[in-house]
Amino acid sequence: MVKTYAERAEIFQNETARKLFQCIERKKSNLCVAVDVTRKTELLDIVDKVGPYICLLKTHVDVIEDFDEDLIVKLRALSESHDFMIFEDRKFADIGNTVALQYSSGIYKISSWAHITNAHTIPGEGIITGLAQIGKPLGRGLLLLAEMSSAGSLATGSYTDATVAMARKHKDFVIGFIAGRKLTGDDEDFIVMSPGVGLDVSGDALGQRYRTPEDVIVSSGSDIIIVGRGIYGNGRDVVKEAKRYRDAGWEAYLTRLGLLKDD
Ligand code: 5BU
Hints:
It comes from Paraglomus occultum. By secondary structure, this protein is of the alpha/beta class. It has helices spanning about 5-10, 15-25, 40-50, 70-80, 95-105, 125-135, 155-170, 215-220, 230, 240-255; strands spanning about 30-35, 55-60, 85-90, 115-120, 140-145, 175-180, 190-195, 225. The chain has one domain: TIM Barrel. The chain binds 5-bromo-uridine-5'-monophosphate (5BU).
């Protein structure tokens, strides 16, 4: 039987994973919004609007042109007031020693504010141990990139399988995967977050591919939908779209649990 988010919240070893699933259940939202804009004020404005409808905010902090400490202070305040967590989609991809520095230091000091970040597994297991040195004492969580939504991605087959095997060895820090589908059995608990979700178009001009929340959650067994331009893209009513995706994601979850008819 498929477990509820609330049931799964009890199982995780990792504190961040537990808190995220509790938040999903509390807000009845499995929606993560990806806000890829380049100005602080625009980012904060969108986050303030979508905050009530999301469990997770995904950032690319390095695209912000006027980044400063104040942005982090304000994002953290919004994360408290609207009750969501923060995922910096940094996609680390270097040796352990370097990623530990990239995670903790530099301008962004990602480990000091992002509850969750992610990493490619191409460098091998050292990338996880390097990031864990910094993130574990802070109670942070790591997602491994097991698959990508873009056309022609090389993260498939044995690469994906090897990524799952690495995650199993580090369950206290690795909380799950970026992938298009559930990759493990029901007896294991990993969160699956799926980007490339949209209700209106099938892709963009640069290789992105979109699937619906229903496809991702009901047919493929993913846990969290990641939606970007489908919510804040040109001329969209951000609040209306956030509610629409939240509802679509939650309905898909209830269908997966067998509480709604899948027709
Ligand atoms: P979009 O506007 O919904 O296409 O944005 C998708 C976001 O998810 C964007 O921030 C990407 O960097 C991110 N993403 C993705 O689209 N596909 C992937 O496989 C991974 C991340 Br990993």
